[in-house]
Amino acid sequence: MEITRLMDILESDLEEKNLLPPQRNALLTELKTHIRSADDAGPLFTYDGVKTLSRHSFDSNSMITSREAAKCLANVLLLEGKTRQIFVDLEYPVKAAQRLKNDNREDELLNSRILFLLTYNTTLDFSQLFDENQLAESINQNIVRHSKSYSKTGRRDPPNAISTQALSETLKLLFNLSQYYPQYLSTLAKSAPSILKILCCIHLATPVLQPPVTYLVNALLNLSVNYDDKPHKDSDHNPYFPKPDQYCNIDRFISILDNAVRTYTEEQLETLVTPLVTLLRKVFEFAPSHVRPHMQTALLPSNSERSQPLGHSNTLASRLLRLSNSPVAPSLRESVSSLLFELSDKDATSFVRNVGYGFASGFLMTHDLPVPVSATEGWSTGQSGGDLGEKLTSVDGKEINPVTGQIREMEPEASEEEMTEEEKEREAERLFVLFERLKATGVVSVKDPVEQAVEEGRFEELE
């Protein structure tokens, strides 16, 4: 087997030094071509295999040899989980952390990837690497270096492929460490300004949610709430709301969101855009008082959309409303509904007024939140009394339908055209989600009419 032959030569070379540097490098390059799948790389998954590659990666005097060996080692650690613990037992993680201090993008890529893989299925305690090897400082410094490659004017040459991959690996490592070692968040959070700068300056490809943009967003998820030991509300030092343009980061997040919801299917959005929506929720929570209305204006339906039922236009707000009832994206549905509720200051009456009872009802019921009485009264009679009813059923002095959010005088006559098949399907999906939510609460016992009809035998099979 070719891998066995190559490994025998490389293992012997560690003791006898019988290879010239170019020969050694050529063997490692050849070995790398054979590490494509776990089926072919069995001899590398042993203690001796990991030890040989680790020694060439971290004990060599040649950085060229070291990097070629580290490429092989990183592939081995990726393909077979048990090799990661072997690497830890050999006590090489310290050397990988030390190597991150190098101002070299290839070293950053390889060692960030190795350390990232060690966050899974090992007993490694990264606390030592934080305390004795300045791991957080190395990560922060590498991200600062990347940020210097990006300019808002676009006058600098775009980073090369190696640099972009290195940034992605560093961001993945940062995210996992911020999840598993929250005690070091105050140090890791020093990367936030640089991450925000990169996200604002980076060219957005199509489709927009791909590396490194996805990793930039993920890395901010923890840092947005835990930037340091004190709240940032109305602070002049919060990097998310920098002077002189305190809206620049918010507008970038919203622009990416708008691009994404117009590009991807709902099934794709379930995994791709949920982190971004979560980030917007966390940022809104800590936004200064004068920034919050800016986010509300950008993400909630405007009064100009009330000429038709809310959710029927092509705006970002309408698309978010439709996602809040998505039958195929449960995590995104919950996250978007929560965002809209929080943008409504967590007030049920404001929530119904902003999005309409039709979109608000499921969220309110599943979270055991009181439904404003005026909403249901307005649904049945079109009238409500008192200040609360007026808040729900009027906008700019015009009466609105609290269920659909549409201005009453712009509603179609009773003899409206029959719904299209597509509209019927979407309405059926919305009702299905609503019934499922109601059943999940356990507060009321409801049954989907379609499910009930099937049980009662009122459906016939077509020949």
Instruction: Note the beta-strand portion.
Output: under 5%
Give start-end ranges of low-pLDDT stretches. 226-234, 378-390
User: Which structural class is indicated by helix and strand composition?
Assistant: mainly alpha
Largest sheet: 2 strands, antiparallel
> How many beta strands in the DSSP annotation?
2
First-residue to last-residue Cα separation? 60 Å
Instruction: Tell me the number of helical segments per DSSP (H or I, 4 or more residues long).
Output: 25
Task: Tell me the helix content.
Answer: 55-70%
Which H/E pattern describes the elements? HHHHHHHHHHHHHHHHHHHHHHHEEHH
Spatial sequence of strands, sheet with the most strands: 1-2
Q: What form results from the Cα inertia axes?
A: elongated
Q: Please give the radius of gyration in angstroms.
A: 28 Å
On the 0-100 scale, what is the average pLDDT? 88
Walk me through this protein's architecture.
With 463 residues, the protein is mainly alpha-helical. It is built from 25 helices and two strands. It has helices spanning 2-16, 21-34, 47-58, 63-79, 82-89, 93-99, 105-117, 127-133, 135-147, 161-180, 185-188, 192-201, 213-223, 248-263, 266-272, 274-285, 292-299, 316-323, 330-343, 348-355, 357-366, 373-381, 386-393, 421-441, 449-455, and strands at residues 394-395, 398-399. A two-stranded antiparallel ribbon has the order 1-2. A hairpin with a 2-residue loop joins strand 1 and strand 2 (398-399). Helix 4 packs parallel to helix 7, helix 13 packs parallel to helix 16 and helix 20 packs antiparallel against helix 21 (357-366). The chain is elongated, with a radius of gyration of 28 Å. Residues 226-234 and 378-390 have low confidence and may be disordered.
